[in-house]
Specification:
Oligomer: heterodimer
Helix content of chain A: under 10%
Helix content of chain B: under 10%
Order of helices and strands of chain B: EEEEEEEEEEE
Radius of gyration of chain A: 13 Å
Number of helices of chain A: 0
Strand content of chain B: over 45%
Strand content of chain A: over 45%
Number of strands of chain A: 11
Largest sheet of chain B: 6 strands, mixed
Distance between the termini of chain A: 34 Å
Shape of chain B: globular
Number of helices of chain B: 0
Structural class of chain A: mainly beta
Structural class of chain B: mainly beta
Largest interface: A-B, 26 and 23 residues
Shape of chain A: globular
Distance between the termini of chain B: 41 Å
Largest sheet of chain A: 7 strands, mixed
Chain lengths: ~110, ~110
């Protein structure tokens, strides 16, 4: 069982609200990732980090932002939620030299009304 | 552009039979090809990987085959069990990248 945690698991929020999705891992992994996934569809990378104070945008354009102040923590923030942000958000991490083997959290299912 | 795609969106298999899930890729520069399993309500779970310089790799009840000539990847699951019910994603990693690109997934369902 992977030691990577996401909170909240489910979130229903109104349009215009600011939200932060939390992700933490206790494996000491250097790389962390955020993916967006609609039900039954492929995963789209929205942000990733090589390590502390390093963040990059992924392949899917996103209005979210991330930070990596501590190795174990990689929160994702939406400044102003919109219905188009409704989706599942998955956090993952990988060990040095093994970015092909990613460990995923359980996901946060976000609904914006 | 690069893409990783799957031939079939759903696959139904009798319990105890072998399952074969296929995937096509387009980027010849990928150095790793990977299979992930995602059960309902959970995040994806790494199953097995294969490096581009190999054509076959075996794990516990799973075998991955890589055919670089036709850019085709397959996952074989032996003696399929109810616990194998999930969506299976193939993915690829470029040699210089620390990220992977996922395909669209195949749902595997098991008939009792």
């Amino acid at each position: 069982e992977a030691d990577i945690y996401q909170t909240p698991r489910y979130l229903v929020i109104g349009t215009g609200k600011k939200i932060t999705l939390e992700c933490s891992q206790t494996m000491g992994h250097d790389k962390m990732y955020w993916y967006q996934q609609d039900p039954g569809m492929e995963l789209h990378l929205i942000h990733y980090s090589y390590g502390v104070n390093s963040t990059e945008k992924g392949d899917l354009s996103s209005e979210s932002t991330v930070s990596r102040i501590r190795t174990e923590h990689f929160p994702l923030t939406l400044e102003s939620a919109r219905p188009s942000h409704t989706s599942q958000y998955l956090c993952a991490s990988s060990a040095p030299g093994r970015s092909y083997e990613q460990y995923f959290g359980p996901g946060t299912r976000l609904t914006v009304t | 552009g690069e893409s990783v795609g799957l031939h079939l969106p759903t696959l139904s298999v009798q319990e105890g039979d072998n399952s074969i899930i296929n995937c096509a890729y387009s980027n010849s520069a990928s150095d790793y090809f990977i299979w992930y399993k995602q059960e309902s309500g959970k995040g994806p779970q790494f199953i097995i990987d294969i490096r581009s310089n190999m054509d076959k790799r075996q794990g516990q009840r799973v075998t991955v085959l890589l055919n670089k000539t036709v850019k085709h990847l397959s996952l074989q699951i032996a003696a399929t069990q109810p616990g194998d019910s999930a969506v299976y994603f193939c993915a690829e990693k470029y040699s210089s990248a620390s990220k992977i690109i996922f395909g669209s997934g195949t749902r595997l369902s098991i008939r009792p």
